[in-house]
Design brief:
- With 134 residues, the chain is of the alpha/beta class.
- The chain has one domain: Transcription elongation factor, GreA/GreB, C-terminal domain (Chitinase A, domain 3).
- The protein contains three helices and seven strands; from the N terminus they run E-H-H-E-E-E-E-H-E-E.
- Strands 5-4-3-7-6 form a five-stranded mixed beta sheet.
- It is globular.
Amino acid sequence: MSTQPRIFITDQDHHRLMALLSQVEGPWAEALEEELGRAHVIAQTEIPRNVVTMNSRVKFLDEATGQESQMTLVYPQDAKLEEGRISILAPVGMALLGLTEGQSIDWKMPNGSVKKLSVRSVEFQPEAEGRWDL
């Protein structure tokens, strides 16, 4: 993972994702653990509204293909790609976590290629809407 911008995560998301890591293993679990280790943990009530948190709906661009997508970043049990819900354990989901609008990241995919993703906008963020339960 060559380009690693500064990322932010809520204390609640950090706690929940660490619990998730205790239940899964493998290379993507290790990659998520690495991301959590470099994240700046912020109180749920203090997270800026332009940060991709868990259950955020984000519009992003694949720089290589020019394809723009909109996805909601969810926990594995809630993932349904056909409904636009991507798991935090998917490479793209993991790459988006903690980024802010306008940030880009280079992310290594399972096939060894590197995707450059850019966050266009955070369309919905639970914390910004006072949805502390999500």
